[in-house]
Amino acid sequence: MSTELPIEPPIDTQDATIGIIGMGDMGRLYARTISGAGWKVTACDRPDKYEALKAEFQGSSITILENGHLVSRCSDYIIYSVEAENIDLVVKLYGPSTKMGAIVGGQTSCKAPEIAAFEKHLPKDVEIISCHSLHGPKVDSRGQPLVIISHRATPRGTALITRILSCFRSKTVHLSALEHDRITADTQAVTHAAFLSMGTAWHANAQFPWEVERYNAGGVENVKINIMMRIYSNKWHVYAGLAILNPAARDQIRAYAESVTELFKLMISHKKQEFTDRILAAGTAVFGRHRDSPLLLRDDILDQYSLSATQIPKNERRPNSHLSLLAMVDCWWKLGIVPYDHMICETPLFRLWLGVVEYVYRDRRLLEECIETAMEDHTFRMDDIEFTFAARGWSDAVGFGDFESYRKRFEKVQTYFAPRVAEATRLGNEMIAKIFEKTRDAGEAGEEATV
Ligand SMILES: NC(=O)C1=CN([C@@H]2O[C@H](COP(=O)(O)OP(=O)(O)OC[C@H]3O[C@@H](n4cnc5c(N)ncnc54)[C@H](OP(=O)(O)O)[C@@H]3O)[C@@H](O)[C@H]2O)C=CC1
Ligand SMILES: O=C(O)C(=O)Cc1ccc(O)cc1
User: Fold this and answer.
1) Does ipTM come in above 0.95?
2) Closest of 258, 276, 286, 234 to residue 425, by C-alpha
3) 50 CB less than 6 Å from ligand 1?
4) How sure is the predictor about 440, in pLDDT bands with cuts at 50, 70 and 90?
5) Which of 300, 374, 405, 433 is surrounded by the fewest CB atoms within 10 Å?
6) Of all atoms in ligand 2, which is nearest to the CA of residue 136?
7) Which of 78, 49, 86 is nearest to 64 (CA)?
8) Ligand 2: which of 26, 188, 236 to mutate, judged by most atoms within 8 Å of the beta carbon?
9) Is residue 79 within 8 Å of 18, Cβ to Cβ?
10) What is the edge-to-edge ordering of all strands in the sheet holding 62-64?
11) How crowded is residue 270: how many other Cβ atoms within 10 Å of its Cβ?
């Protein structure tokens, strides 16, 4: 903690004003929820959006101001909710206008650059307490993790921010910026890399997977398709920022691409014993300790959320090699990661992803079916080769740190899937709401959650 902070910050906690800089999807969620809980809220976006925003929020209790200087001057807690790529520029611009003794935080998904910007540009009397809601703007925040990072803070400041953010009714997790970035590299960046690669591979093969008979296979396939669509319906900068700016993410995404490539090489060289030994060793390392705990997902619920026009009965479904999923466990094993330890920073997508991976690995018959298909059945080979190219391509895009080429890769696939996005989003929301309603019920009843 800095010695330059006042012992008692000059904030009347009953009367604090909360300022939001960046009124995009997350900024709006924060402004509406915090103001709905009775706090005074001021907000701005870029100056050229002032008139439109003012008209939109007229009659609400949120005061729209012209720019971040005006928000910073009058607010006791200022939250920067801008693109991660822009954080340094925006804090440099408005940080010096921060009200004396105020507290500043950010909502960006990777904390190293955000904290560096705060340390560099904020006056020394200002506290730094950041946050990160681990869900998208359209997900019910109740019960989802909300990380609070008291980086340069008094206990009183932390207590105030914890109180303000309690209106989200999320699960509060206190972490350092470093801990946050290491954990979310796994729960977010690598999870996204897997689904970005699926979308890229399906696009490369000119497929809408829900129209392809071999993907019309219920539970696990539904989750893969729905999450892929959900990611490609979002803004590219969210995924680019949290992957490119987080050094731990870059390393983990590279490890994932290596696992995909190595497993694929074993498949095409028919090294069945080596492949099987590797899959089983990885499975034991990752799931060994959790062998007897209840499964996170049950596919009878997931079967309902399909984009396909027809449903194939379970006993007629075609097995899949699930290379994306085998490589995930291989990568966790190689990196010494036990994903259950990262549930404190779970996102809805990570929980679903871990749920389907676990579902396959804890069913010996299903796992053997994957191994058998990977080795003997060539039906999925063209998908698996494209998936391998895609995983390496995404790893390169992140490793090179080039936002522009990331955007182009992302938008090419996004455009391809755009015609079905609205329907996929509706289905994905229903699926997530159903699953988390059950999770929340179980949590409130003090049980282990299973859906
Ligand atoms: N979307 C999600 O699921 C989640 C996102 N986050 C993080 O939250 C942050 C915001 O994300 P999200 O709301 O989705 O993104 P948006 O693109 O919807 O919002 C960012 C907003 O900040 C504005 N902005 C940029 N520069 C300035 C400036 N100088 N002054 C005022 N406003 C500015 C942007 O304007 P313009 O578009 O013109 O640049 C935009 O309206 C990101 O860092 C993201 O990583 C965290 C959790 C979940
Ligand atoms: O659940 C996910 O991984 C999402 O895609 C939504 C999301 C995106 C960025 C965040 O910082 C937090 C949540």
Assistant:
1) yes
2) 234
3) no
4) low
5) 300
6) 6
7) 49
8) 188
9) yes
10) 62-64, 40-44, 17-21, 77-80, 103-106, 127-133, 145-152, 171-174
11) 11
399 lines ligand 1 (CB under 6 A): no
pLDDT for the residue 446: 33
pLDDT, residue 10, reads: 53
Ligand 2 atom nearest to CA at 108: 11
Residue with tokens 């650059």: 113
**Is residue 59 classed exposed, middle or buried when 0-12, 13-18 and 19+ CB atoms within 10 A define those classes?**
exposed
| pLDDT tops 70 at residue 13 | no
Q: Which of 169, 5, 185 is nearest to 112 (CA)?
A: 185
For residue 181, give both structure tokens: 């970035």
β partners of residue 127: 103
Joined tokens for residue 386: 């494209």
Highest mean pLDDT among 31-35, 219-223, 444-448: 31-35
Cα 236–239–240 angle (5° rounding)? Answer: 80
- Residue-wise pLDDT for 242-282, tens only, equals 999 998 999 999 999 999 999 999 999 999 999 999 999 99
Q: H or E stretch including 77?
A: strand 77-80
Report the alpha-carbon angle 171-173-177, nearest 5. 145
C-beta 46 within 6 A of ligand 1: yes
Nearest residue by C-alpha to atom 5 in ligand 2: 231
CA distances from 333 to 81, 286, 326, 365 (A): 35, 6, 11, 21
First to last CA, the chain: 42
Cα–Cα distance for residue pair 224/188, rounded to 1 Å? 15
Closest CA to ligand 1's atom 43: 108
The model's pLDDT over 331-348, given as tens digits with 9 standing for 90+, comes to 999 999 999 999 999 998
Q: How far is CA 208 from the centre of its chain?
A: 24
Phi then psi for residue 25, to 5 deg, are -60, -50
Nearest atom within ligand 2 for CA of residue 238: 9
Give the contacts of 401 (CB within 8 A, at least 6 positions apart): 244, 250
| Model pLDDT, residue 44 | 98
Q: What is the DSSP letter of 378?
A: G
**The pTM is what?**
0.91
Q: What is the mean pLDDT of residues 107-121?
A: 98
| Cβ contact 142:168 at 8 Å | yes
Note whether 339 and 256 are within 8 A (CB): no
